[in-house]
Amino acid sequence: MTLPWRGSSNPPIDPDRLPLFRGLRPRKKWRYLGVYGPDVQMCVGVAHIGPGYQAFWAVHNRRTDAFRDRAALWPIVHFDETSARFDGVDVSYRPAGEPVEVVTMHGSYPIWTRKTPVRVTGTIDGVAVDSAGLVDETAGHHARVTRWMWSAGCGTSDTGAAITWNLVEGVHDSPTNSERTVWVDGVPQEVGLQRFAPDLSRVGDLEFHAESERSRHDRLILVDSKYSQPFGTFTGSIAGVTLREGYGVMERHDVRW
Fold it and tell me: What is the rounded CA–CA span in Å between residue 134 and residue 145?
């Protein structure tokens, strides 16, 4: 296959048929839903490293400034291709734009991801939501040491268009056929390299204003994962599109797995 590859369907590898191990490399696979809006921000995810499992969630109620989160090595969420339910949260989601799939090499093996803008409805901590969000699905035999910085968010442009973005540095970040994307009213456009500030205060021409943060440092027998994901608001522009309002996350992940 010729990599990197970017498209909307039919990637050159089947993520559902990747073996649990390739040599000593365990398969990493996860699904993540982020909900980014003016009243409530939320994430929920399920991740697998080889036979290992972790579920996690976090909720920031911007009306009350309350933040809570949880992670566990056993099922604490119901999370499938259309819905998510856990403590105080019951939401459904559906595509709200064209998905973007990318396959690149990482270490010795290819890795895959699909990013999909979604519309999320339901209740979060008693708040009725009808909000934009993003689903991140990933699978592959990543290198033993992996580091990335990532940003995802949703908002409105100064012309009233619905905006969703996905930016990354460290994985799937080749000059072309990367996962870097801005969706304008659901239509994707790849964007060029967007540099992240070391303190996560900025990516490209987007300035980030942190409000709450999910962070963990898991030290296990074969895995050492240091993770930080603050929620907040964004101002500025991306790919020539100026935000009227923007909500979302920045993320830093440094892992040995």
Answer: 26
